[in-house]
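Can you give me the bound-state structure? Components:
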Amino acid sequence: MEKRVRVRFAPSPTGGLHLGGVRTVLYNYLFARRHGGDFVLRIEDTDQNRFVPGAEQYLFDCLKWAGLEPDESPLHGGPFGPYRQSERKELYRQYAEKLVHDGHAYYAFDTPGELEHMRQAFKTEQNPSPQYDHTLRDRMRNSLSLPAEEVARLLEAGTPHVIRIKMPVGETIRFTDLIRGEVSFDTGTVDDKVLLKADGMPTYHLAVVVDDYLMKISHAFRGEEWLPSAPVHLLLWKYLFGLDQMPRWAHLPLILGPNGKLSKRDGARYGFPVFAMNWTDPRTGEFIEGFREKGFLPQAFINLLALLGWNDGTEQELFSLQELVERFSLERVHSGGARFDYEKAKWFNHEWIKRLPAADLRPCVTEILSKHEIVNPDPSLLDRVTELVKERCTLLTDFGDQAGFFFRRPEHYDLAAVQPKWNQAKQLFFAELVRAYQLMATWEAPELEREFKEIAAVNEIKPGEVLLPLRIMLVGGKFGPGVFDIAALLGRDETLHRIRATINRLG
RNA sequence: GGCCUGUUCGUCUAGGGGUUAGGACGCAUCCCUUUCACGGAUGAAACACGGGUUCGAUUCCCGUACAGGCUACCA
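Here's the bound-state model for the whole set.
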């Protein structure tokens, strides 16, 4: 049977989608598209306590914005559904029972209190966090330590219990990670992870193995934080389905913040977004800023994330999603963690704003302008304005300041920059300029500039002395593109109006 | 503490037994520009440390240091 490439991303809907999460999705997506395979999204809603309303929809909204929509998911459906772990609950128990039956797992009846007691009792200087492992399991209450009759009686009585994997001793587990090569573990150092919880729900360890098998996943990418539990998963594959069926694993390097692993709190602390889109946790009211609302283009967001730990070996840094699909390869993913640099992130965004034509930017710019109470701008004017100012916009939100004055008269004028040097001569100059501009046959930037300079020459005024005042008159401050370009786009009536109005203000 | 994974300019990285160790962000200086940007030029800035292997190690091996992750009936 043909082995198809099927990659899987399995987030938990606990709220928010941070940089590392999006990058994992991205690499999944790129790999799947590159190899003509399927991108499967499974939702890890195992822990009822941490399930957050609205979080799943938020997740899909983020993926949609970034252009990384999966082929199979709770939302899209697919041939191997359901894709929500909670809806697959019934599936897992039989596999856990099979493991018990085959001697690879066991029932454990220890209560949370007893576990806590064990951790305290065996805690030493050398071993600050004792594990439920082969050295301790005989002293706990489980089907390995208890007499068979006792176990049967407890089970019969419906005593709450979990199923734990029985990690073997003295075996070396090896596997080849797609990114870091051969990785090995000594089974004796890994604890007896819970596979099936007392509420009947599987833990990630069991669920991911069972689902990857049932959903015919061929490649699984996840964060490096999962590496320590890889031996558990590998053993589960060996016991349940055979190692030859196991997907290829790739453990992605972590994304680091200014100090240590990037956390959602880093955003507020250092002033940059860490989630794809704005997210407010309904439980705590905690708000985390998103790249989208901060003014990032999805193209830039994808681009910067892809380059955080990967490059194609050339010096190219700007890639469209399509180009990434064509060039992506796991072999070129760096194995070390990458520190997120907001300055570089902004550079990517700036580059994308510059390279996108005005028409592509139109929806974003329109949205930004509407926040400045500018609605229904003339599309052709909007595009010309966008083209003119985009090179000075690093974030989309910059269009508010950079383009707003084309559609609405400035509210504030930096008169202080003009007033001290304002005099009779300049006043006369501008009066003459207004008269001349009224008579001009055309209204193009080069002619406006020529006329301006001629009048300045006649009045024996250096153009530089009246250029800044003109700028203040038109845009209100010391910013914006070339003054004559602005005047040209503003049109004759509006330009003259703003000049006259400001002259009056200057008295 | 134990286990796992990493380590090239401040940051992202290229490279890989012999290189003037390359690029990008950021920074600095200059040019262009009578605003701010864009663009152009130049500059400062790196192979964590110690052993080994080798004619030769930044590159391979072993240690050490440092960093990060994991060490839950969370994922």
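A couple of observations. Chain A is about 45% helix and 10% strand. The first helix of chain A runs from residue 19 to 34.
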